[in-house]
Design goal:
single chain; about 130 residues; 2,3-Dihydroxybiphenyl 1,2-Dioxygenase, domain 1; four-stranded mixed beta sheet; 4 helices
Length: about 130
Amino acid sequence: MKLASVRLIAADLNKMVAFYEMVIGVKAEWLAPVFAEIVCPGATLAIGAAETVALWKAGSGEAGSNRTAYLEFQVEDIDAEFERLKERVPLVHDMKTMPWGNRTFQFRDPEGNAVSFYMPETAAARHRFASR
């Protein structure tokens, strides 16, 4: 099995797509007026307008209401990314090293979803990611 994508439901689709294009540095592919994808190595970030929820089942999703999922992006240079974004995104926390060895900072997208950029910092973390 392969994790293909993570999908966000957006009340303001254009704002969310523009935000992630800026954060990730990749242009979105608009597959429909209500749906865009940002293809990254490893997985795709899909962003659908709120009205796409009804295509599955009305009421099964709600834009801006998730407080349990974190989108995490592994980066090559965490310090450079922090400097690039710290004045452009609403930070949740500054740079810190987590107990599992990743150096990270976290921010929120325009609809409140948590986003983390990280880089393996400890030898154990670097070893863990080298085998993936």
